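Fold it.
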Amino acid sequence: MIETEIDRSWIKIAGVGIISTVFAVLFGYYFNLLVADLTASRLLTALIFLVCWLVLIISQIFIIKSYKLEALMLLIQTLGFWTAISFGKSISEFSFFAILFLLASLLIGSFIGREFLANGLKIKFGAVSSLMLRWAMTGVALFVVVYFTGFVDFAQPVIPKNFFSFVLNGSAPIAAKFIPGFSFSSTVGDAVKSFVSSKVSAGTSATEIDKLTTQLLADTGKKFGVTLDPQMTVIDATYEIANAKLDSLPVSLKQITLVLIIIVAFASLKSLTFLINWLIILISAVVYQILLASNFMHIGAENRSKEIIIVD
């Protein structure tokens, strides 16, 4: 058997696999928390564990020689992730298919990366990593969209509250630039009052601001066909308005609208993955160099003068 097909150090390979699985489970755990309640700290923590998991998945392409072995490890890691997000919940069909899409993307990405590595004379780390990530991040985006689609009832279309909150909370920093102190968790009354205060002149009295706030609340509610309680949170009010607009459509248009929302959500998530792809590649390159410098592995050559990775 040629050198590129020999896995020598099973202890090192097992270690990498175990650490990867731990990061997959931690990512799943925090993703599960995000579904319940999106906060900046949970989102950041989930992204950190996702990045760590993907960095190690990239490393596995160079460390593990057998594709069958790596496929098994990716299966175990994905099952660990699925277990974490499904803990205490019933397994839905959408959850099952979401995991299948994620696993398939990881397997395809790994296979394409390995083929590129095997067919080159030099080890091109950046190119291999980029090929892997392209598929892996597509799988992550598909997983998120398909998973949340499971909360949609297409017979009686209503935008799922947790999906709506998950997407909308991400736009809070943008809204805050236009409305000082804006937060989706604040009350509608406070948010509208802040908006009115930012638009009127500095000498406007508090009584006049309250009057304008009440009038704007009434006009907005009338426009969208809902009653806006000043004590409602902004996200609850926005959710009611969105569903009121959706409810005014014929059933067929409701379903088409939901499908379009799902497609747009996938496209948006896929475009956002570009922002962290290079970060993951950079971190992976640093890890790669550390593994080489620490003699965890080293670069050798075959008779045909092709660079290879050897894990002793």
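The beta strands are 298-301, 307-310.
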